[in-house]
Design brief:
7-stranded parallel beta sheet, 332 residues, globular, 45% helix, Rossmann fold, alpha/beta
């Protein structure tokens, strides 16, 4: 496929067109992904999540500049809320990262969530593969910013940064189990504001209470739970660190980059990088199976039959499980 060859040669226009292709799905998109897949697996994928207003985009902007100073190429996938009218991305993180424009070592793509839960778009994983195949060494994935539900970033990232900020209720969010367990690193952004030290202390207190279990991989899929590589028995345990940052000035960003590199080194030396890759692969297979099975089932049912089932469930003539079993029988 011409587009994929151009992508592998570093053509940015081909990369942009292929990302659009995978967002729309279809046979051509899957063929392209199959062709580039052997060229993936080299990038360090970094997830950035946290509540709205904590400064995720500004922080990613500064992290990208810090990595460019270290001669690393950077890809950014920023997932934004979906417009109910156009279906496109509402906020457009590229607007907030416009000082990165013109740098050939950086590629930014905003993606609409299109109703997907968990903070990511359905095509996020495919966009990451394309950036990886195009040779970007560091790939940042910024989630929508819906707070505690955004644990799906663990399906896409090797390293996850949870961003908090003082005075925004994040001391309460920090004690929620889901957000604590997905974090490999914490960044208390806007650290020049009052209450930043208190926010960091709250996070540290919860890390101490959770002990060595903090930062473990918890958001498994059914297939991921069957994987028990030797790396999972490694004695080394990563303890999430907390870094204070001020994204508007760049303060603390280089120290955060050092932590990111330390976590990458830890994953490689402990064997946990391969473990995470295997779990990510298992969960992606499960997600694809779920989507394809749903498409297959719905493809076997006429719209009138589906309306009839919905009417029966709504009128309490049939329970939802019974309706689902009737639909599943169509595949037999």
């Amino acid at each position: 496929m011409e587009l994929t060859q151009r992508l592998l040669a570093g053509d940015r226009r081909a990369l942009a067109r292929l990302i659009s292709l995978v967002e729309n799905d279809g046979v051509a998109a899957r063929a392209a992904l199959a062709e580039v897949y052997p060229h993936t697996g080299c990038a360090h994928i970094i997830g950035v999540t946290g509540a709205p207003g904590v400064g995720k985009s500004s922080l990613v902007n500064e992290l990208a500049k810090a990595y460019r100073r270290r001669r690393a190429t950077v890809g950014i996938v920023a997932v934004d809320p979906t417009s109910p009218f156009s279906g496109g991305a509402i906020l457009g993180d590229r607007v907030r990262m416009n000082d990165l424009a013109g740098d050939r070592g950086i590629f930014i793509r905003s993606m609409a969530s299109r109703g997907s839960l968990g903070g990511l778009a359905a095509a996020t994983a495919d966009a990451i593969k394309l950036l990886d195949a195009a040779g970007f060494q560091k790939i940042f994935v910024e989630t929508v910013g819906a707070g505690q539900t955004e644990v799906d970033i663990t399906r896409a990232a090797h390293t996850t940064i949870v961003v908090a900020a003082p005075g925004m209720g994040d001391d309460i969010q920090a004690i929620k189990a889901g957000i604590m367990e997905i974090a490999d690193l914490f960044a208390v952004n806007k650290a020049d504001r009052e209450g930043a030290d208190a926010a960091a202390m709250t996070i540290q207190m919860m890390l101490d209470m959770n002990g060595s279990d903090a930062g473990r991989w918890t958001h498994h899929g059914l297939l991921a739970d069957t994987i028990h590589p030797e790396a999972s028995r490694a004695s080394e345990v990563w303890k999430p660190s907390i870094r204070m940052t001020v994204a508007t000035t760049g303060e603390g960003v280089d120290a955060l980059v050092d932590c990111l590199e330390a976590h990458r080194a830890y994953l490689e030396m402990s064997g946990r990088l391969e473990e995470r890759r295997r779990r990510m692969a298992a969960m992606e297979i499960e997600d694809i199976l779920r989507r394809e099975l749903l498409k297959g089932i719905l493809g076997c049912v006429s719209s009138s039959d589906m309306r009839s089932l919905v009417d029966q469930v709504a009128s309490r003539q049939l329970d939802p499980y019974g309706a689902a079993e009737m639909l599943l029988s169509k595949l037999a």
